[in-house]
């Protein structure tokens, strides 16, 4: 994997666009380089919510979710320095590149 964030849209959304500071609701599956799943909102049976673009999630998500629209599906290939870097996090070893398959379910902004 390169040192750059790679964004691949498998399905374009047609709903509200993800912007900095929005509360987003997603379903996702996170994989390591070997393809093994380290986390999945599907397996928990509950979507994941976070505020995006404000440093509350890994940089790869803060950067990679911008512009995505509700109803869209996107894969993020996140190099280690935009993920957890030199820190280990559960099943994720230090300096691990990560891949996320993400479906954007909802975007809420202060205007809502």
Walk me through what this model shows.
With 112 residues, the protein is mainly beta. It has a single domain, classed as Chitinase A, domain 3 (Roll), CATH 3.10.50.40. Helix content is 9%, strand content 37%. Strands 1, 2, 3, 4, 5 and 6 form a six-stranded antiparallel β-sheet that branches.
Write the layout of secondary structure elements.
Blueprint: E1 6-11, E2 23-32, E3 37-40, H1 41-44, E4 48-51, H2 59-64, E5 73-78, E6 98-108
Antiparallel strand pairs: 1-5, 2-3, 2-4, 2-6, 5-6
Question: What attributes characterize this protein structure?
Answer:
112 residues; mainly beta; Chitinase A, domain 3; 6-stranded antiparallel sheet
Number of DSSP helices?
2
Number of domains: 1
Shape-level CATH architecture = Roll
Structural class: mainly beta
Level-1 CATH class name: Alpha Beta
What shape does the CA trace take? globular
SSE pattern: EEEHEHEE
Q: What characterizes the major β-sheet?
A: 6 strands, antiparallel
Give the total of beta strands: 6
Could you report the average pLDDT, rounded to the nearest whole number? 95
**What proportion of the residues is helical, as a percent range?**
under 10%
Low-confidence stretches: none
Q: Beta-strand percentage?
A: 35-45%
Radius of gyration, whole Å: 13 Å
Distance between the termini: 39 Å
What's the CATH topology label?
Answer: Chitinase A, domain 3
């Amino acid at each position: 994997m390169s040192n750059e964030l790679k964004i691949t849209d498998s399905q374009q959304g047609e709903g509200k666009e993800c912007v900095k500071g929005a509360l987003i609701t997603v379903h996702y599956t996170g994989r390591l380089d070997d393809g093994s799943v380290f986390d999945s909102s599907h397996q928990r049976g509950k979507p994941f919510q976070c505020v995006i673009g404000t440093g509350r999630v890994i940089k790869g998500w803060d950067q990679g979710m911008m512009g995505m629209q509700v109803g869209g599906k996107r894969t993020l290939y996140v190099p280690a320095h935009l993920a957890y870097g030199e820190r280990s996090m559960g099943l994720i070893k230090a300096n691990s590149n990560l891949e996320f398959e993400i479906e954007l379910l909802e975007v809420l902004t202060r205007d809502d």
